[in-house]
Each structure stands twice: as structure tokens, then as C-alpha cells.
Design goal:
- The structure is a single chain.
- This protein is of the alpha/beta class.
- It contains 13 helices and 20 strands.
- The protein has helices at about 50-65, 105-115, 145-150, 165-180, 190-200, 200-205, 240-250, 255-265, 290-315, 340-345, 375-385, 420, 455-479; strands spanning about 5-10, 15-25, 25-35, 40, 45, 70, 75, 85-95, 125-135, 155-165, 185-190, 210-215, 220-225, 225-235, 280, 290, 325-330, 350-355, 360, 390-395.
- The longest helix has 26 residues, at about 290-315.
Length: about 475
């Protein structure tokens, strides 16, 4: 099985979510996920590439140091705000109508529709993505993709929903990663990626509205028949609630964000005993006291504005009566206390939180399973399905010097010696002795090192040669 790493970065208005996953065949294991406060981004659009690049560089280095890897390329999401949707169509005449329609032909038709669609302002606009809506063949219309593949027809026609955004957003995106020396492997249109991470096939088939509440933008993607039929975005989200708390309490952004997460809640009438508590903000003298109920009233007011905008776009889609599976709330804003009950109360739909479905394992903290992580996780899973190449390299670690092996040598009482190898008497002008070498004794014993005698394998050979030479010399003199 092919093993690789995939790295994704969710460029949010309030945080960067960096995720690294180890992919082994169909197995996906999240080995790193961390959120870092972002800078230079507003409503998911990069407004200051230099500030965003500096903050992102810190997040990438932190991940590289912890995992001891080098991130070469990443997958990122396109902005979710200021996106318009249009309808495009394409048609191809098939040369062999007796052959089955293939998935490759469907993709080719999609490419034709996108390439031939005339952008109103190509210098300032770019296509973020497209979703097939329906297909038509000789005898049938309104077929979905998995129904048209395998049919017979002389022609194939398709209708697509095309999503168009600002070209400047992609230019800024490329600028940031070029400065970091990291390639962008692929840019994803996030609503469809998140939907396939959070929603079940049954929900998408029955009809559901996926609401992603981010810090700077809230998006609504409506599915029916397993296909995204409508998309809209609202240019505000959880950050607006933080700003309201900051203004009303005259405190910093960081403190307002902490108060929102710890004490902020919708539906102040349902806070029970919590509404009686009073917060003491010790930034000035005397201390500033703010009732928790008052904070809840501030939060509830802005949250209702967000929900009203969500319901407006659902109504505008014309699919409000097709949401059999109700509304699913995801993104960081979904964690706001009592937000889901507020949406249910105001809409009348069934409402639940959208967490990443268990299509992966994780060796990191629980944050990877939160609603705020759905975009980063979704891009990893999409990149795995798209079979993108390895995103990281693992630097070679310097090898430690190998320890010298200590060998304990055992010799017999009399070690046999190969004459041709160890000693040739003819070199001394004499004939070699005719005595046959004695057979070695089977029993072995350790020989202690006499003074002046060398040790080691080569030294053993030398000592043996020296002994035999002296013995031969003494016998020759006696004769």
C-alpha cells in the first residue's frame, strides 16, 4: 500500500487550522491538528498577505518541529464569501452510441462546460468549483451522475452549478505560500468538502441545509437528491458576537472572545441559575461588574440576526420544503451555548451539530473531532480520494557511529596452519619440513596473553608463523 502524508490548512478569519495526516491505503490517521490565531484575514478573504504569511509561518514551523518533517505542499480552501453561482451546460456527440457512457466522458463534459462558460469579468473573476446538477441522454432527462454512467446514448448533455469568486483572493493565497516556499497542491471549494465530511449520504439524499458558522462568514449549502443545489454566504459570523461583547463591556478582543466561549449563550431566559452570576472584570479601578444575563442578551441579539439571515437564504433557494433532514450546524460558531436550540426554535426544523464523521483515526487531542476542525479534516479526506502526492518529506537523521564489536577469540592447543598462506620455507632457500601438522585437539581453552605476544586474528597468525619458523630453524641446525 502507498504511504504518504497530507497537510491541509484552513485559513479562517480568527484561526488557522493546520492538519497533518498519515495515509496508508484507505487508512487515514490524523497525527497533528492545531489551531493558531490568524491575522490579515477578514470574512475568509486575505486582506493583508504579509501579516497572514508571518502568522502562518509560525504555525507551519511549529508543526514541522513537533513532527520532525518538512512540509513541501498543502491543500487549502477557497474563500466562502462573495461567491456567486451560475448555471452552465455542455453537450457532446458520441461517436459510438453502442458503447456505455463512462465516468471519463462525464468528467470531459464537465470540463467542456467550464472551459466554454464566459466569465462576465475574467480579469477579476475565477471559477472556484462546479457541481453537476443533472444529465440528459436520448430517452431520459434529469439523471444524476451515478445513473447516467453505464447507459447508451448518441449524445450526452449536462447542467452544472458553477461557483465564481474573486481572482484577487487566489492571487493573495498563492503569494502567501510562495513566500513560505510551500506549493499549493490543490484549492478546494469548502462547502462541498465539508458537507461530505459532516453529512451522511441519507441526509444529503433526503434534503438538508448545512450551515457553517465561521468567525467572519456564515455559509449555507443546501443538498437534495445527494447533490448541492444551492449556495449562499453571509458576511458575518461568530466574530460579530465577539465585537458586540467587546463594545458593550469596553474590553479587549481577546478577553471578549474568552468571555463569549466561557459565559456567552443564546436564549437568556433558559440560563437558570447562571443568569444570576456577575462577572468582575479587573481591568480598571473600581472593578467593572457585568451580569452574565446581560452578556447573554447581547449574544442572543446578534445570534438571532445570523439565524434570520440563514432562514432568508433557505427561503430564497426554493427548497425550504425539501429539507427532510433539517439543518446541520457546523464550524466554530456551532459551539456557542444554546445556538442549536435557538435555530430550532426560530426555524421549526430538526437541528443538530455537525461533527466530522468517523472516517479516520487520530493520535492527537479531542480538538480534531470538534465542529471547528471540519474544514481541515474535510480537505485531508478529499485529497486522499483525489490521490494527491505526498505533501511532506522526512529529513534523514544523522546516524550515530557504530560501536566497535568486541570479539573473544578461542584457539585450540595447536592451531593448524596452511603453509601456502602463512609461511613458505622456499623463500629462505630451504626445503619445507616433511612433518605432517598435528590434528587439533577438540577441547578448547582460553589462552591468556603472554607478555610480548600480540593478540587479534592477524596477530594470532603472525605468532603462529613465528613459532613454526623458529622450530624449523632449530631442527635444521641439529641436522
Amino acid at each position: 500500500m502507498e504511504e504518504k502524508y497530507i497537510a491541509s490548512i484552513d485559513l479562517g478569519s480568527s484561526k488557522f487550522g493546520l492538519c497533518v495526516a498519515h495515509v496508508n491505503g484507505d487508512d487515514v490517521q490524523i497525527v497533528y491538528y492545531r489551531e493558531t490565531p490568524s491575522d490579515g484575514i477578514r470574512a475568509s478573504m486575505i486582506t493583508n498577505p504579509m501579516k497572514a504569511s508571518e502568522r502562518l509561518k509560525e504555525a507551519v514551523k511549529e508543526a514541522e518541529d513537533e513532527l520532525m518533517i518538512h512540509i513541501m505542499q498543502v491543500v487549502v480552501g477557497m474563500p466562502r464569501s462573495e461567491v456567486t453561482q451560475v448555471t452552465a451546460s455542455g453537450r457532446i456527440e458520441r461517436t459510438n452510441p453502442d458503447e456505455y457512457i463512462t465516468a471519463e466522458e462525464v468528467q470531459a463534459l464537465k470540463s467542456i462546460a467550464l472551459e466554454t462558460y464566459p466569465l462576465p469579468n475574467p480579469e477579476k473573476q475565477i471559477m472556484y468549483g462546479a457541481v453537476a446538477q443533472s444529465f440528459s441522454i436520448d430517452d431520459e432527462i434529469q439523471l444524476v451522475e451515478n445513473e447516467v454512467v453505464g447507459t447508451l446514448s448518441s449524445a450526452l448533455e449536462g447542467n452544472f452549478k458553477v461557483f465564481i469568486g474573486k481572482r484577487s483572493a487566489t492571487v493573495s493565497l498563492d503569494k502567501i505560500f510562495n513566500q513560505l516556499g510551500i506549493a499549493v497542491a490543490k484549492k478546494y471549494f469548502l462547502p462541498d468538502v465539508v458537507a461530505r465530511t459532516v453529512l451522511s449520504p441519507a441526509e444529503m439524499a433526503a434534503g438538508v441545509a448545512l450551515v457553517d458558522v465561521g468567525a467572519g462568514v456564515t455559509s449555507i449549502a443546501i443538498y437534495q437528491g445527494g447533490i448541492m443545489r444551492h449556495y449562499a454566504s453571509i458576511p458575518f459570523g461568530g466574530k460579530s458576537i465577539t465585537n458586540d461583547i467587546r463594545t458593550e463591556c469596553s474590553i479587549t478582543d481577546d478577553l471578549a472572545e474568552k468571555i463569549k466561549k466561557r459565559f456567552g449563550a443564546c436564549l437568556p431566559g433558559k440560563l437558570a441559575s447562571l443568569s444570576e452570576k456577575v462577572l468582575q472584570i479587573r481591568l480598571t479601578e473600581p472593578y467593572k461588574e457585568v451580569p452574565v444575563r446581560y452578556i447573554s442578551e447581547v449574544v442572543d441579539s446578534r445570534a438571532r440576526e445570523i439565524v434570520n439571515a440563514i432562514l432568508f437564504y433557505i427561503q430564497e433557494s426554493g427548497l425550504q420544503n425539501s429539507l427532510r433532514s433539517g439543518i446541520v450546524i457546523t464550524g466554530g460558531g456551532a459551539e456557542l451555548a444554546n445556538f442549536v436550540p435557538l435555530v430550532k426554535e426560530m426555524s421549526g426544523y430538526d437541528v443538530r451539530k455537525g461533527y466530522p464523521r468517523y472516517m479516520f483515526s487520530a493520535s492527537v487531542g479531542s480538538g480534531v473531532y470538534s465542529t471547528a476542525a471540519t474544514s481541515a479534516i474535510g480537505m485531508v479526506l478529499a485529497a486522499k480520494e483525489d490521490k494527491l502526492p505526498d505533501c511532506v518529506t522526512v529529513p534523514e537523521r544523522p546516524q550515530e557511529p557504530a560501536e566497535e564489536d568486541t570479539i573473544e577469540v578461542e584457539v585450540t592447543n595447536e592451531t593448524p596452519v596452511e603453509p601456502d598462506l602463512l609461511f613458505n620455507p622456499e623463500e629462505f632457500g630451504e626445503a619445507a619440513p616433511q612433518d605432517k601438522p598435528k590434528k587439533p585437539v577438540k577441547e578448547k581453552k582460553k589462552v591468556s596473553k603472554p607478555k610480548g605476544e600480540k593478540t587479534g586474528f592477524l596477530s594470532i597468525i603472525w605468532n603462529t608463523v613465528e613459532k613454526n619458523a623458529l622450530k624449523w630453524y632449530d631442527e635444521a641446525n641439529k641436522q
